[in-house]
Amino acid sequence: MKAVAAFVLGAALLVAAAATRADPVTDWNVAAFDVMTAANMAGAPNARALAIVHVAMADAVNTVQNRYTRYVYKGALQPSASADVAAASAARSALATMFPAQRARADAAYASAIAGVADGPAKEAGVRIGEEAAAAVLADRANDETTVPDTYRPITAPGSWVPTTPPLTAQYARAKPWGFDKADRFRPGPPPALTSAEYARDYNETKDLGGVRSTQRTAAQTELVKFWSQTNLPLSWHQAARQLATARQLNLADSSRVFALLSLGMANTFIVDWDAKFHYNFWRPVTAIRNGDQDNNPATERDPGWTPLNATPMHPEYPSQAAIIAGSASTVLGRALGDGNAGPFTVTDSADPKLTR
């Protein structure tokens, strides 16, 4: 996590010349977040939708340019079509299908994207390719089990997470991953035993530093924790990718590939993590620390009034979704763009644009 933090937290502003370069993929990434924010979508469904948009775009672009392997769409290669139009058509079609109430936003972004493209066969072919690519990706994910009924059954015992409202998207624990067979393929071993010294160490560190009334946490740590909230974490990686793609002046095929891989990886983090979370069903700190006398560990003293600094998200504790997203995103960007110096970038708070890192 230290390496990941350094990768993000050493950020600074990009030079203005690089920031002005137009990139249809980064533009659509912004448009997709705009549509999903208006639709009040976040978390795992947000990651799934971004993956659909960016995979559809990458498949459409590679149907024209044939630079990289396509993921789903297998239509005939059409090198004379407009790749820019194909990408825009794929993004608009995917967003309009998933968010029909936000079609006007998708249509407005599409009109802006193709405004300078002359009418003709290349444009017509691009429109068709994009629509077909989006339809193919949506069909591929239609039965991914992300929309099955929630049948989570609460369990109450020492060590078990105790939900206070229905959990967030518990069905993702059984969903179909992108690009591999089963969600449990990367399931880690169990969390530390409640009676272990490792558990006591983690318990006391969280109790001392993570509480809303902590006197040991520094102001910088408080600012850090508040910034890396559930909303900012996935958004910030896409912000970073947009700036890095612009700074590197990636061409359309390379940019569409980077965002497809980033979005695929982040969508999979929710599936593999939810599998592990709901398999182990490990309790959250607010439950563990208020019941520290029930874990049979003499090194964990109960605090009956302990409350976490950040609101507790409604899913089990182990393993950390924030760490898995950061690991996946930094690995994808490192592999795709090179593991050397990424260059400067700035990430901005989703609610307050004055807060940046």
Q: If you had to describe this structure to a student in words, what would you say it looks like?
A:
This protein is mainly alpha-helical. It has a single domain, classed as Vanadium-containing Chloroperoxidase, domain 2, CATH 1.10.606.20. Helix content is 53%, strand content 0%. It contains 13 helices and no strands. Helix 3 runs parallel beside helix 11, helix 5 packs across helix 7 and helix 10 runs parallel beside helix 13.
* Count, helices: 13
- Overall pLDDT metric: 89
Give the C-level CATH assignment: Mainly Alpha
Ends: how far apart? 16 Å
Which CATH-level-2 architecture? Answer: Orthogonal Bundle
Beta strand count: 0
Topology at a glance:
Layout: H1 2-9, H2 16-19, H3 24-38, H4 43-65, H5 83-98, H6 103-113, H7 121-141, H8 197-210, H9 219-227, H10 232-247, H11 252-280, H12 285-290, H13 321-337
Helix pairs in contact: 3-4, 3-5, 3-6, 3-10, 3-11, 4-5, 4-7, 4-11, 5-6, 5-7, 10-11, 10-13, 11-13
